[in-house]
Structures are given as C-alpha cells and as structure tokens.
Amino acid sequence: MRRAETDGSTMIGGREGMKQSTGNAGRKRVRTLTMKTPILLVTLGLFAGFLSAEPASAGEVNFVDTDNFTDFSDSYSFLERGRESIINEITRFLENRAESRLKAGEKLTIVITDVDMAGEFEPWRGSSAQDVRIVKDLYPPRIDLSFRLTNEAGTVISEGNRKLRDMGFMYTVRASDRDPLRYEKDLLARWLSKELRRGSSA
Questions:
Q1: Model confidence over 135-189: pLDDT tens digits?
Q2: In 10 A of CB 3, how many CB atoms?
Q3: Distance (Å, rounded) from C-alpha 62 to C-alpha 90?
C-alpha cells in the first residue's frame, strides 16, 4: 500500500481504494437509489430471517444494496474492485467484536445500508493518483446501519437505526495504525461499545 503526506493530508493507495468525485473539491458523486424493494422492508426481512434461523455466531452482519452505497470501492474507475474484500473484512471485524462483548445467549444482528469511506478521490492530481485515496478531515467516514439485539429467548433488548459520523476521525485513530480500513473500523468499534453498554443497562 502506497502512502505519502501532502498538504496536511494522507494519500493512501492500493487496497483502501479511491473516493468518487464529480471534479469539484470536497464534492462526492452520490448515485440515485433505484431499488425495487425499499431498504426498510429488506432490513426487516433480514432480521426476521436471522431470528428464525439457527445463529452461526453471536454477531450477524449483512450489507444491503451495496451498488448504491455512497462510496464503497477500491477504485475510481472500477467501482466494484475490492468491494468483496472490504465486506469480508468489516464483517469479520464486527462479528469478532460482538462475540467478545455479548452475554451468553445474546445475538446482535447488524444490517449496513450505506457506507461513505473516509477520504476522497481527487482526479485533478493526475493519472498517477488513479488508485490513491486522499484522506483529510474534509472527508470523514459515514456509515448508516440498522441493528437488533436479542437475548437467549429471542426477546428484543434493543434495536434501531443509526447514522454514524466522525468529523474528528483523524484525531481518534492512532498514527501507528496502518489498517487500510482503520477509520471505518474505529467508527464502528466506538458505536458498538456504546450500543452494547446501553443495551446491557436497559
């Protein structure tokens, strides 16, 4: 993975990928949602399926309609490149976190409905930056999700929709952290810790 400091920002290449842009600084190209089934109905259907099926683990993570995510790619030119790898990495991360924090018999189901990865693609930097993500505080990570926490009997402890944002993301992650998804993972980890503390006290 290629990385260089420039004008107070971090350039990250390789697996972390590119941010999409319309050509104006700081503006993102957001695709219009053209789903046949509303996200809410899909989410509810996923929850119902998870509750009726034998759980594979204490944590269950799914991504809905990733083609319409705001920014979820490893490349500006090839939007699907690296997507499966990102999904697998975030899924493992959340499942492992949930597994270590949930009480016996509890089950946490997470449905991710939108991701806007930290950083931005800046095409005016030239073709050499084709697969470089420019990370600076103007481009924070954003993740939208729904969740449901149940106990051993299947009773809902807590549930809801969350819009995760971190405008100070460059100051909450250790400078030594070289994980390509460190900003997204940190955002999710802090939400998960807060949510599970809230659910436990309910």
A1: 989 999 999 999 999 999 999 999 999 999 999 999 988 877 889 899 999 999 9
A2: 15
A3: 10
Sign of CA dihedral 24, 185, 200, 62: positive
Please give the backbone phi and psi of residue 9, each rounded to the nearest 5 degrees, phi first.
Answer: -120, 170
d(CA 180, CA 173): 12
What type of residue sits at position 56?
Answer: A
Q: How far is CA 153 from CA 51, 52, 196, in A?
A: 10, 12, 18
Query: What are the DSSP E strand ranges found in the chain?
Result: 3-6, 9-13, 59-63, 107-116, 132-135, 142-150, 156-165
Dihedral, CA atoms, 80, 84, 85, 87, nearest 10 degrees?
A: 110
